[in-house]
Amino acid sequence: MFGFRDIEIIRAIVRHGGFRAASDATGLAQSAISRRVRHLEDRMKISIFERDGRGVRLTAAGRRLVDEAEILVTQRDRILGELTQGVMAGVVRLGVAETMTHTILPRMLTDLRTRHPQLRFEISVDTSSQISQLLIDDGLDVAIMMRDQLPRGISMTPLPSVTLGWFAASSHFRLPRPAGIDDLAALPIVSFPKGTLPHRQVVNLLSPGRKTAAAIHGSASLATVLHLVRQGFGIGTIPHDIAAAWPHTGLEEIEVLPEARLPDLDFSICYMPERNDEIGREVTRAAVEAGVDRSDNEINTAHN
């Protein structure tokens, strides 16, 4: 209906007090300015200016057009400035496996917000398999997910591994110290959702050679796992970082024999370089630095 050139001409007429003054300021012929305004009024089916013997003034519709147009011009100038000056702005669609929301994500986002205050984040928390598909379908810009689910053609950077432990509410379950595989397999277990690597690892650890399979319940929500374990529904396989972040649950780690220990979870941050190279590299930098900070904090805590 109208372009930025139309807006600039109307602004010049208002600013300089008339068509003739606007002609002198813009270098356009007065007839060309009048014709442009008339054509704009015809297209929009409104009157922008009221004409009288003393000059012109904006109509009510014209005032609203100018007010709204000022917002558009400001946005245009901001976008051009950000693009030409290398400012990172806009929305970043970030997919995150829930385990990482309690580890590096807060530090990573705080760093990015400080460095790039114009960035906005839309965070999707899901299983790594779902995140992988969203990344392929261009539903996400950057993803933090388990390494076994990485799609082809991505740029990938490993992140620090996440350690898992067996946890229980001591008021509901008493196990020998240390507990063995048979002790664990005899109890209901709450773990990661079926089909994920950590769920398969638990099944492989507990099931071989047994006439009766272990009762393993899966949940994509770590918060649900914590609540179920806290209420005595079963024992749980829970990342140490998550248990530490929820001390009010009162869960205690089960001491186990070496044969019953759970493998670490390997995560990576990734993106499709042909679509999101610039923002992907910057989010990766922040994630790696957040991972280093986390590792340093763990070492300092251990020493203290």
Element layout with pairings:
Elements: H1 4-16, H2 19-26, H3 30-44, E1 49-52, E2 55-58, H4 60-85, E3 90-97, H5 98-101, H6 105-115, E4 119-126, H7 128-136, E5 142-146, E6 155-158, E7 164-168, H8 181-185, E8 189-191, H9 197-206, E9 216-218, H10 222-230, E10 235-239, H11 240-245, E11 252-253, E12 267-271, H12 273-303
Parallel strand pairs: 3-4, 3-5, 8-9, 8-10
Antiparallel strand pairs: 1-2, 5-12, 6-12, 7-10, 7-11
Helix pairs in contact: 1-2, 1-4, 6-12
How is this structure best described in words?
This protein has 304 residues and is α/β, with parallel strands linked by helices. It folds into 3 domains: 4-85, Winged helix-like DNA-binding domain superfamily/Winged helix DNA-binding domain (Arc Repressor Mutant, subunit A), CATH 1.10.10; 90-161 and 266-303, Periplasmic binding protein-like II (D-Maltodextrin-Binding Protein, domain 2, 3-Layer(aba) Sandwich); 164-260, 3-Layer(aba) Sandwich (D-Maltodextrin-Binding Protein, domain 2), CATH 3.40.190.10. Helix content is 48%, strand content 18%. The protein has a 5-stranded mixed β-sheet, sandwiched between helices. A 5-stranded mixed β-sheet has the order 9-8-10-7-11, sandwiched between helices. Strand 8 (189-191), helix 9 (197-206) and strand 9 form a beta-alpha-beta unit. Helix 1 crosses helix 2, helix 1 (4-16) packs across helix 4 and helix 6 crosses helix 12 (273-303). The longest helix is centred in the C-terminal third of the chain and has 31 residues, at 273-303. 28% of the residues are buried. Mean pLDDT is 87; it is low at 299-304. InterPro entries: LTTR, LysR_HTH_N, LysR_subst-bd, WH-like_DNA-bd_sf, WH_DNA-bd_sf. This is LysR family transcriptional regulator. Keywords: DNA-binding, Transcription, Transcription regulation.
